[in-house]
Amino acid sequence: MSYFTPDRRAQAEELLSLYPKARSALVPLCHLAQEQDGWLRPEAMEEIAGLVGVTPAEVRGTATFYDMLHTEPVGTYLIAICTNIACLLDGAQELLEHAEELLGVRAGGTTEDGRFSLEEAECLADCDHAPCVQVNHRFVRAQTPEAFDQLVDDLVAGRVQETIPPHGTLCRVRRDGGLRVDRQQIAAERAAARAAKASRAAAADEAKPSSGGSS
Amino acid sequence: MDASEASGVPRIVTAGFDDPESYTIERYLARGGYQGLRKALGMDPEAVVAEVDRASLLGRGGAGFPAGRKWSMLRPDPVTYLVVNGDESEPATFKDHALIERNPHQIIEGTLIASYAVQASQAFIYVRGEFALGLERMQTALNEAYAYGAVGRDIFGSGFSIDIVVHPGAGAYICGEETALLESLEGKRGFPRIKPPYFPAAIGLYGQPTVVNNVETMANLPWIVLHGGAAFASLGAGRSTGTRMFALSGHVRRPGVYEVEMVKTTFRDLIFSEQLGQGLREGRTVKAFVPGGVSAPWFGPEQLDLPLGQDEVGAAGSMLGSGSVVVMDSSTCAVRAAWRITKFFFRESCGQCTPCREGSGWLERILYRIEHGRGREEDLEQLLDICDNIAPGLTWPPQMTTICVLGPSIPSSIHSAISMFRDEFLLHVKEGACPMSGGSHG
Question: Does the interface ipTM go beyond 0.85?
Answer without folding.
Answer: yes
